[in-house]
Every structure is written in C-alpha cells, then in structure tokens.
Fold ABC-2 type transport system permease protein.
Amino acid sequence: MRDQLRVLKHGLIASWTMYSAYQTWRLWTFTWLSRLLIQACFYALIGRMLGSQQQVDYLLIGNVVAVMAIDATVVILISVGERQSGTLALMVAAPSTHLTVYLGKGLVNLGSGVAASTTAFLVLPPLFGVRLPWPEAALVPLMILVVGVSCYCYGTCVASFVLGFPSARWLALNVSYLVLMTFCGVNVPTSFWPDWLRAITSVLPMTHGLAAIRAFIAEAPASTVLGQLALEVCVGAGWLAVAAMSFTRMVRRGRRDGSIEFGG
C-alpha cells in the first residue's frame, strides 16, 4: 500500500508539473472555466425560452454537474498519450500496479473539473433565479466530488480499451462525455428513455449522483439522497474494476508480443 500511495503521489506531482506548464490560473479562468460556464448558461437559457422556471432549474443543475465530466474524462487523452510518447513501458515498470500510475496522472484534471463545477454551482443559480437550500447546499460540492470520481473511473476504463487504438482517442473522449450528458439525466429525465436504455444508464456514472444532487436540492429525505450516492459509488467502483482487468490484459499481451513498446 505504501508503494501504491507513493506512486500515486508522484504521478500527481508529474501531472501537475505538466499541467501548470501550459495552464496558468488566468488562462484556466478566462478560457476553460468561462467556456464551461457559458455552456451551462446556454442550456439554462433554453429553459428561459420555454418560459418555465422549473425547466431552468432542471437544465442548469444538470449542466453544472455535467461540466465536471468533461475534465474527468480527459484521462482518456492522458493515458493514450503515454503510449504515443513511448513512456508506457516505463510506467508499467513502476513499483505499483499500472492502474495506480494512470490514476495519478489524471487527478489534476479531475480536480479542475470539480473546481469548475463547484464554481458554476456557486455563481450561476443566483443569476437564473434557481433557489438553493442554503446553508445545507454547501454539501453539494462534496456530492459533485463523488460524481467526479465515478466519472474519472469511467474515463479510466474507456482509456484502457482505447490504448490499442490511439488514433481514436479524441473520438473516444467526445463520445464518452456526450453519452453521459445525453442519457444520464442532465437535460432530460432518465424516465424519458425506453426501459432497456434506462437499464444501461443505471450503470453509467453521474446518473445516480446527479439524481442525489437533485433530490438534495429538492429537500428530499436523507435516505433517498444517501441511497443514490451509494449507488454512484458502486457504479464508480464497478468501472474501476473493469479498468483494472482491462489494463492487466493489455499489459500482459504487450509484454508477450512486444507491442507495449509501440506508440501506435
């Protein structure tokens, strides 16, 4: 466990060094954060056009949480980039599981996503007349973090499959977070979809976490909120388990045929 934590720490330090080399706080605030805030506002304005404050509330809260998923799934690009740069073999040789290395490399992006989503949650609702149950609403960023970790595990799993097809990394990233935004209750309730599709969405990250946040804001019973959060944690753990198996399979095959050295 000590080796795992040490590698995780150094992976985080390395990723922060690379991230801060091209992303200053000014650049992050006035380009990336502002872009995500504008995206959330765009959907909230659709609710305004529909003439329904209820729609404004639904769309704004959904997209405030969804902006986090964009950053969380960037781990797909980071993981595939390691193979393209030829450092995958070195990462596999680390004194820990290779999954730990990958998890550490993208934590900065996860933090960026949670920070952006939390900022949107604090700034945008007053602008659109969305009422929040303060001071209890201060717990929502913690729920956003739970959803972010779940989405990060999902992105790591997708990355484990895309490693064999590096040229598809951008397609995989865009499809991954768009699937979450489309089917997980961000803009339309999950009840809108047919039963078979709802069954699939129930094992996607953000579905239960977003439902928990909506229930919390609506002042639903604590059992409802905690139940949905527990399901979100289980979903994230499931995606992480699949990622671990997929990475192990990829590494074993790469060691066997020598393809682990190739950038693809």
User: Anything to note?
Assistant: Residues 222-257 form the longest helix (36 residues). The chain has one domain: 2-261. Residues 208 and 232 are 5 Å apart (CA to CA). The mean pLDDT is 83.
